[in-house]
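Extended Data, panel c. Modelled sequence:
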Amino acid sequence: MGTKNLSHVTEFLLLVLSDDPELQLLLFGLFLSMDLVTVLGNLLIILAVVSDPHLHTPMYFFLSILSLDDIGLTSTTVPKMIVDNQTLSRVISYSGCLTQMSVFIVFGSMDSILLTAMAYDRFVAICHPLHYPVIMNPRFCALLVLASIFISLLDSKLHSLMLVQLTFLIDVEIPNFFCGLSPLINIACFKIPTNAILMYFTGAIFGGVPVLGILFSYYKIVSSILRVPSAVPKAFSTCGSHLLIVCLFYGTCLGVFFSSAASGARRKCAVASLMYTVVTPMLNPFIYSLRNRDMMGALQRLIREASKSQ
């Protein structure tokens, strides 16, 4: 079969979750409900942090930015997936595919960097509590967020520039319900093999460095609390929610990577991607609110004030 350069390919075909008419309505209701819960839950976290002075700390500042990022991550893929599954439309334009992939990389990379910033915040709070207000000052926290935005944009731009150098089969099907980087690399026909190596290298840099930062932070945290056994319960309550979110985020990312790399694993890749794009962002507000007394108190006060105003 002939090939065309990506710049001449006008559209791609996406994978629909099911073409069974009996399942379409069920899937529509399920994913629409999950999307609404994700958006509303993360918005509640943001409103609680903004409205409650007790939550004006670096940890909750990063949490509010993470919630905003999760809304963006979900909104990039889920609405189109819901519409495509309901209408059985599989077509996405070349420009739309590239745009979706670029925006998805921005929010995904920012998610990873924010989790690293939150791990560093916990490291400073537990290992250097006396210097915590000086180190984690508002200006430094704002700089960390700005740096995460800049690095995420750079990561997205680099991958987009390298992706346009690849060639694709005509009318090729993407083995996922959205245009992700890994599925696009797997279906491409490379003119220059170094393009693939360079893509995976930059992905390892932008993805591996945050992981190493998180591991180093928790290594220092564990080393510190082992010297003071009485601090274990407090440290666990402080870091437990963050660790759970880190495991969910990177666990689903690895699931997407290995599923997309395996041959004949289209459905497995789609299921793993659903965990990453739908389930994890939806669970984050519940994990932080149900396991955190300060957040629960802020949410209850926010709901009481909203009910009084009505």
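Residues 3-309 form a domain with the Rhopdopsin 7-helix transmembrane proteins fold (CATH 1.20.1070.10). This feature is highlighted in the accompanying rendering.
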